[in-house]
């Protein structure tokens, strides 16, 4: 009996050792930039920046640092985040999450708004506080707690700057002091402070968030310096020889965490260029790398300061998760926390019908401007190869009103597949692009009288988006468009492509609405 029990034990421990080996990057795919992570016991929490989208600052939970579940968003109320007139270059920039004595703190910047602020909660799955505004400027604020004190670092005037604050009131308790300018790369930013072996370590990003991005580190025995840089900086970059040809580029903006077993890990952002190109469409994503950090030594990221898609390294015991469901039928009459709106949405325009369809009500706000929040709700594109589809019925519409599916990078970079109301009562299915100041209709097909619900589909293979529609079971190809024009390199901004359901009252008359019976996203 003892032998059987022992062999069972051996079998299961070798299985768990197997599970604890290897993972795939990115650990959070699609537009999820500027990750920050903290640990509470055996639970890990991670946040990302969110720019012009609402709710702000997606919040993830994990037990193994590899598999992440979005459990909510930190900024869910207009009283916390005003996103008026924001676009993919403004709004909510990089956040930091920290846990201290039973409270979670999230600190970030509303760029174009009132600057740096903290929200806090004791229950990260619940609501977060209203904002506590901070005096020190710059972006990428981070908090460090020690001996009853709370320190803030950010980068006003392009210099990493420290002060002591009261995190409950936001009051600044010591003058802002410049503590490090980095190693000479442009845009020293993304500072985080840690203490280990009696040293204060200051981790930052430099080089800008494109191909020159890098993570560097400095240390001091005293919190406000002087900080001396690691002679082996940068500790992470793909801009050097080691990163040449790597399908991951732009590695930077990182945060460190000590796991419950004493191992150290780094989360960072990076992007995956379209294979064979220098452009990327999926935004900056969240990656994970192991860190070796010996006593009194500098941390070493994954051996040679790079990350890979396939990471063949020991991990914490893994807890796989089901992932985002492929099919949403709206019958639960709620949207999961992954769904995002542009700016602050007017909730009256987002309804569910009794039979479980998503009903979007049109306003005059269009997808072509950042002047107002259009009726638009989206999920991120997380894979190069995917298919997204929906079925839509446009109702009570006047000529030129439209509703459909948008492959949306930002307000002058999107491909739209939609139903449009025509004079005389019929509707068309239309494929249109908006690029810069140009709006161009690629295809338009007049549908038969009373066409009703139409299925709209977009497929992506990294280089092209291919559009089609299905009416009464009959499939119709419409055309394809090059993904390069939606890339960050072409469109600019800090976000990535999202797939949005929308309705617009282009006639300028109120009343139109659109019922969406499902949204399907399948990785190919
Ligand atoms: C962010 C900065 C950066 O605040 O880009 O890549 C800015 N890093 O640290 C916007 O994400």
Structure description:
With 524 residues, the chain is mainly β. The protein contains 2 helices and 40 strands. The protein has an 8-stranded antiparallel beta sheet with strand order 4-27-30-39-32-33-34-35, with no helix packed on it. Strands 26, 28, 29, 31, 36, 37, 38 and 40 form an 8-stranded antiparallel beta sheet that branches. Strand 21 and strand 22 (264-271) form a beta hairpin. The longest helix is centred in the N-terminal third of the chain and has 18 residues, at 2-19. Mean pLDDT is 96; it is low at 1-6 and 8-18. Bound molecules: (Z)-L-Arabinonhydroximo-1,4-lactone. (Z)-L-Arabinonhydroximo-1,4-lactone is lined by residues 33-34, 49, 93-94, 139-140, 189-190, 205, 209, 252-253, 269, 494.
Query: Could you estimate the helical fraction of the residues in percent?
Result: under 10%
User: Which residue ranges are poorly predicted, with pLDDT under 50 across at least 5 consecutive positions?
Assistant: 1-6, 8-18
Strand order of the largest sheet: 4-27-30-39-32-33-34-35
- Quickly give the structural class: mainly beta
How much of the residues is beta strand, in percent? over 45%
Distance between the termini: 48 Å
| Number of separate helices | 2
* Radius of gyration using CA atoms only: 24 Å
Report the principal-axis shape. Answer: globular
Overall average residue pLDDT: 96
What small-molecule ligands were found? (Z)-L-Arabinonhydroximo-1,4-lactone
Number of strands: 40
Sheet with the most strands, sense and barrel status: 8 strands, antiparallel
């Amino acid at each position: 009996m003892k032998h059987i029990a022992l062999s069972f034990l051996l079998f299961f421990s070798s299985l768990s050792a197997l599970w604890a080996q290897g993972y795939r990057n990115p650990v959070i795919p699609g537009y999820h930039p500027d990750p920050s992570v903290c640990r509470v016991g055996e639970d890990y929490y991670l946040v990302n920046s969110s720019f012009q989208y609402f709710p702000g600052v997606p919040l993830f939970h994990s037990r193994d640092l590899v598999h992440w579940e979005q459990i909510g968003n930190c900024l869910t109320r207009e009283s916390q985040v005003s996103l008026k007139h924001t676009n993919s270059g403004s709004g909510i920039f990089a956040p930091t999450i920290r846990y201290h004595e039973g409270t979670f703190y999230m600190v970030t910047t509303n760029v174009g708004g009132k600057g740096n602020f903290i929200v806090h909660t004791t229950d990260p799955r619940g609501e977060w506080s209203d904002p506590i505004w901070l005096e020190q400027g710059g972006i990428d604020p981070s908090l460090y707690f020690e001996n009853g004190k709370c320190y803030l670092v950010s980068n006003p005037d392009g210099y990493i700057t420290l002060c002591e604050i009261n995190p409950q009131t936001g009051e600044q308790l010591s003058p802002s002091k410049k503590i490090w300018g980095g190693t000479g790369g442009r845009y020293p930013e993304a500072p985080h402070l840690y203490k280990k072996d009696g040293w204060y370590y200051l981790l930052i990003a430099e080089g800008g968030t494109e191909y020159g991005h890098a993570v560097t580190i400095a240390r001091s025995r005293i919190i406000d310096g002087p900080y001396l840089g690691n002679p082996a900086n940068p500790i992470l970059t793909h801009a050097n020889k080691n990163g040449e040809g790597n399908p991951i580029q732009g590695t930077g903006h990182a945060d460190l965490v000590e796991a419950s077993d004493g191992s150290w890990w780094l989360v960072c952002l990076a992007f995956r260029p379209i294979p064979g190109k220098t452009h990327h469409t999926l935004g900056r994503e969240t990656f994970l790398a192991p860190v070796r950090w010996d006593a009194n030594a500098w941390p070493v990221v994954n051996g040679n300061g790079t990350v890979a898609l396939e990471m063949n390294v020991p991990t914490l015991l893994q807890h796989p998760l089901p992932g985002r469901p492929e099919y949403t039928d709206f019958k639960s009459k709620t949207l999961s926390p992954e769904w995002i709106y542009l700016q602050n949405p007017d909730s009256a325009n987002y309804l569910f019908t009794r039979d479980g369809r998503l009903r979007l009500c049109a306003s005059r706000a269009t997808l072509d401007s950042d002047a107002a929040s259009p009726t638009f709700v989206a999920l991120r594109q997380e894979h190069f190869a995917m298919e997204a589809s929906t079925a839509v019925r446009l109702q009570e519409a006047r000529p030129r009103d439209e509703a459909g599916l948008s492959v949306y990078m930002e307000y002058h970079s999107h491909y739209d597949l939609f139903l449009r109301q025509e004079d005389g009562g019929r509707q068309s299915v239309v494929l249109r692009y908006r690029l810069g100041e140009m709006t161009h209709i690629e295809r338009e097909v007049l549908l038969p009288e009373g066409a009703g619900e139409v299925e709209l589909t977009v497929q992506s293979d990294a280089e092209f988006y291919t559009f089609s529609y299905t009416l009464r079971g009959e499939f119709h190809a419409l055309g394809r468009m090059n993904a390069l024009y939606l890339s960050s390199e072409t469109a600019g901004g800090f976000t990535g492509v999202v797939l949005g359901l929308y309705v617009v009252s282009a006639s300028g008359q109120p009343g139109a609405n659109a019922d969406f019976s499902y949204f399907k996203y399948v990785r190919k």
